[in-house]
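Work Package 3 committed the consortium to producing structural models of liganded targets before the mid-term review. Because experimental data for this complex are still outstanding, the team generated a predictive model from sequence and the ligand definition alone, so that downstream docking and mutagenesis planning could proceed in parallel. The input record is reproduced below exactly as it was submitted to the modelling pipeline, together with the SMILES string for flavin-adenine dinucleotide.
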Amino acid sequence: MTNVAVVGCGVIGAAIAYELSRVPQLKVTVLDRQPPAQGATGAALGVLMGAISKKTKGRAWQLRQSSMQRYETLIPEIEAIAGQKIPFNQQGILRLCFAGDDLNKWQELVEIRRSQGWQIEIWDSAQLQHQCPQLHNHRIIGAIYSPQDRQVDPLALTQALVAAAKYNGVTFKFGVAVEGVESTTPQPSIRKTCHQIHTSNNLSLDIDWLVIAAGLGSTPLTTALEPSVDIRPVLGQALHLRLPQSLGNADFQPVITGDDVHIVPLGNGEYWVGATVEFPDETGEAIAQPMLLEKVRQEAISFCPPLAEATLLRTWSGKRPRPENRPAPIIEPLIGYSNVLLATGHYRNGILLAPATAQIIRNLISPAI
Ligand SMILES: Cc1cc2nc3c(=O)[nH]c(=O)nc-3n(C[C@H](O)[C@H](O)[C@H](O)COP(=O)(O)OP(=O)(O)OC[C@H]3O[C@@H](n4cnc5c(N)ncnc54)[C@H](O)[C@@H]3O)c2cc1C
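The resulting structure, written out as tokens with the ligand in place, is given here.
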């Protein structure tokens, strides 16, 4: 058997654990200092902006495309193994267009997506009004509707991935932090090999592969290994609102997004609204600013006025792991090591990109066994 340790059990670590659990020769252990999905994952809205994103080529599009394709099979697969229902909105994403938006650019995207096998539509304001009478703003000139895009509950998804991976034989250790890593350098010119990790409960685990899926915790872990990856926090706040009934047409409840504010339907008149994007200050800290959350609420009300009557059930915040000075995400071997893989820095799209990330990690490990 080949021993793989995965550090971190947010959506990325959990998706990797499940994908690796399908490779018979692997013995996988996942360690997290918290219960599953307590980092960025637990704060996410789960909006999967695939076809509607402006990425059309290269790695950014490939990751999105393979994640979206995998989600369609992954959700029923893990629901069946875990025996848990995962809220998965298949009514698409509706992105509002405002005065000044270049609809020709969107027409170009419609053509590109058609050639790639994806369907998106441009709606004029009359069609939008007919489908979503709750939306009112004189600046709205139409919308882009992407029926194949999705939204998933990040906590339910992560918990089901954990349950399915457990069923397939993966060991999870929660409440256990990875504090140290032992490696050997056979010769100065040859890449180092990690052979053991040390944990907060004084355990040592012998390993053949180490996967670092620790979000913001990836920086201290790799600082010990060298070279370190620089991942910084970008804070996001969001709201949970309740109305007496669903907005607009109860049978058509897509995610609605305008000016980078998402309205995420949860059913029964409940909605998530978010999120702020708050960069760290000069000390590296990102502290939630209440007025920025209020600005997001007001923006949502500006194009969806019935939200002004909603009851506030909850607010929360989380920190997105963003790589400094390089594109997100980082899915690659750690430089200088033969058996350490990074799956981190997913910034604003970790829920979207978790399935593709897990497939890449599986492909990096499985040819080697
Ligand atoms: C408000 C908000 C809204 C968002 N909305 C969306 C969205 O709509 N769509 C989307 O795709 N993405 C969204 N995101 C981004 C998404 O949440 C992240 O990209 C994703 O959750 C990152 O997952 P992760 O598993 O890498 O990190 P995390 O979820 O942060 O998990 C990392 C885990 O590693 C553990 N850990 C760290 N160090 C150690 C250690 N030394 N030992 C043991 N365990 C360790 C932590 O305890 C943690 O559980 C949003 C984020 C926020 C904050």
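Reviewers should note the following from the model. The chain has a mean pLDDT of 96. These observations will guide the Year 2 experiments.
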